[in-house]
Amino acid sequence: MRVDSGEKVLTLADENRLTFGRARECTICLDPDDAAISRVAGTLGREGSVWWLTNASTTRPFAVVDEYGFRSVLPPGRRLAVERPITVLVDGSLAQHDLR
Questions:
Q1: Across residues 10-33, what is the average pLDDT?
Q2: At 35, is the pLDDT very low, low, confident or very high (cuts 50, 70, 90)?
Q3: Which residues is 99 bridged to in the sheet?
Q4: How many CB atoms lie within 10 A of CB 42?
Q5: What sign for the dihedral angle of Cα 48, 98, 63, 18?
Q6: Distance CA 91, CA 50 (A)
Q7: Number of neighbouring beta carbons within 10 Å of residue 54
Q8: Averaged over 14-31, what is the pLDDT?
Q9: Which pLDDT value is given to residue 37?
Q10: What SS3 class is residue 83?
Q11: For the chain, first and last CA: distance in Å?
Q12: How confident is the model at residue 2 (pLDDT cuts 50, 70, 90)?
């Protein structure tokens, strides 16, 4: 699985798990000073043969845009099977961050 955050391009092995959010400990730290972003906004990990995107926040949703440009909201605590290329949009107070 390949993840592009604009500044970083990561290739995840099957056993890897990626985290993203404002915490500096996240695999992808979006903006450590933006309190509008959850400390750990989401995760990407594999279970069996399926990659799952999970909203790890307890309060903030984020958006997912599919390969056709359709946007949907992933509420806190929910997860989505990643079967095709997607873009994850995380809104901060200063900027919108995207991961592909």
A1: 92
A2: very high
A3: 88
A4: 26
A5: positive
A6: 26
A7: 19
A8: 93
A9: 97
A10: coil
A11: 10
A12: confident
